[in-house]
Write a structure and sequence with these properties.
Blueprint: H1 3-24, H2 43-51, H3 54-72, H4 75-97, H5 105-128, H6 136-168
Length: about 170
């Protein structure tokens, strides 16, 4: 695949990730637990990690977080999104690159979700300066596994569809 096609695909997926992120912000997950959401926009960088490679996945994730942060205008949620999203995408790219243990898309998505929530937890520790929130990491971990499986399944089928489409053209 040439660079122009990769850039075009990543631009389309960036717009899609931004739209998903904004749409998901209207779903009231906080009734379940504060700060919990599926993170459906994270399907996009996970898909790009497999389809275009780590540089595109990381770049699209960064642009999505910055644009949605600017559109929402909340600095605290921006920090949570930035540190969680970038930590998970970069570490997933590194994990995928290593050849010792190979993870499925769903497995890597679960790892990414746990990393995402862990990074957000440490961001909360820095912002709130309160160690009493330590118990909350267990709740976040449970939801991270659930969200990671769901987004991993979506990413797996998206990757298959893109690969099928690429072979047909």
């Amino acid at each position: 695949m040439n660079n122009t096609k990769k850039l075009t695909i990543s631009a389309i997926f960036t717009a899609l990730a931004i739209a998903i992120s904004i749409a998901e912000s209207y779903i009231p997950y906080s009734a379940i637990a504060p700060g919990v959401k599926l993170g459906l926009a994270n399907v996009i960088p996970m898909t790009l990690l497999y389809v275009l490679g780590p540089l595109y996945a990381i770049s699209v994730q960064a642009v999505r977080i910055i644009v949605t942060g600017l559109l929402r205008g909340n600095l605290v949620t921006f920090f949570f999104s930035f540190f969680g999203g970038m930590a998970s995408t970069v570490l997933c790219a590194l994990i995928k690159k290593q050849k010792i243990i190979e993870f499925s898309v769903i497995g890597l998505s679960v790892i990414g979700a746990v990393i995402h929530n862990t990074a957000q937890f440490f961001t909360a520790l820095v912002i709130l300066k309160n160690i009493n929130i330590l118990w909350y990491i267990a709740i976040l971990a449970i939801f991270a596994v659930i969200a990671g499986v769901l987004t991993g399944i979506i990413a797996k089928y998206t990757i298959k569809a893109i690969e099928r489409y690429s072979r047909s053209i």
